[in-house]
Write a structure and sequence with these properties.
The protein has 229 residues and is α+β, with helices and mostly antiparallel strands. The chain has a domain of 158 residues: Pnp Oxidase, Chain A. The chain is 19% helix and 31% strand. It contains seven helices and twelve strands. The strands form three sheets. The protein has a seven-stranded antiparallel beta sheet. A three-stranded antiparallel beta sheet has the order 1-11-12, with no helix packed on it. Strands 7-8 form a two-stranded antiparallel ribbon. A hairpin with an 8-residue loop joins strand 7 and strand 8. The longest helix has 9 residues. The chain is globular, with a radius of gyration of 20 Å. It starts with 19 loop residues before the first helix and ends with a helix.
């Protein structure tokens, strides 16, 4: 059985912090599909590094074109930095560095280098001025191509950038997905889940990592289901 949901927020969904369902859609907490977490590094006007812990983004492309698509709220330091410098870097840290990742939320003054202040180490990029985060196991240097609002009245903007260089740590240079996921320990943002039928709220957001990779293909690349036919 499936429950069909209209797009209007039910009255019994109560915010556990002010303006929650204006800042984020109530469906963000009902659907609750985990998104991978990453740090967006940019340059402030004074040359200090900015670090934004994010989970609204994806990577996609074809042929030699590989692109980063991220959602940034208007007025944030990252928003202003990207418009000014027209570049950013996507950094994928592992779970062991999550305390440093969350420190970037609080160490965000204009005069502060947020990468260093949060306990990370800066690494020079190859194709952009914005620094990479050395501890991250994957870094993608990006140059802005376009931006547009999510919808007409939205405070959230989509930024599309072409990936101009990629750095991958030696520890995840393997074709075995189980070994790569084990070493990468990529974090996922798991929204505090809300029951859409009665408004029951499980609790605050949490983070998770993948600890199981299920093999659904044979060694020749064919799906197992096809093999059985």
């Amino acid at each position: 059985m499936k429950h069909e949901l209209e797009m209007t927020k039910p009255d019994y969904l109560i915010e556990d912090w002010p303006d929650k369902y204006n800042e984020f859609s109530w469906l963000e907490y009902v659907v609750s599909v985990p998104n991978s977490m990453f740090l967006v590094s940019t340059l402030k006007a004074n040359g200090n590094a900015n670090a934004n812990l994010q989970s609204w983004g994806l990577l996609l492309g074809e042929e030699d074109e590989y692109w980063s698509l991220i959602a940034i709220k208007k007025g944030q330091h990252t928003y202003e930095n990207i418009l000014r410098e027209r570049e950013w870097c996507i950094n994928y840290p592992s779970y062991k560095d999550y305390p440093k990742c969350f420190e970037t939320i609080y160490s965000n003054g204009t005069s502060v280098d947020e990468i260093i202040k949060s306990g990370f180490e800066i690494e020079k990029s190859r194709t952009i001025k914005t620094p990479r985060i050395k501890e991250s196991l994957i870094n993608l240097e990006c140059k802005l191509k376009w931006k547009k609002p999510l919808y007409d009245r939205s405070n959230w903007y989509l930024f599309a950038g072409k990936v101009t260089h990629v750095a991958i740590d030696d520890s995840i240079i393997t074709s075995d997905p189980k070994e790569r996921i084990k070493n990468l320990q990529l974090m996922y943002n798991i929204r505090g889940t809300v029951n859409p039928l009665n408004g029951d709220f499980y609790g605050p957001n949490s983070i998770g990592i993948i600890d199981t990779v299920v093999k659904i293909f044979e060694d020749d690349g064919q799906p197992k289901e096809w093999k059985r036919k």
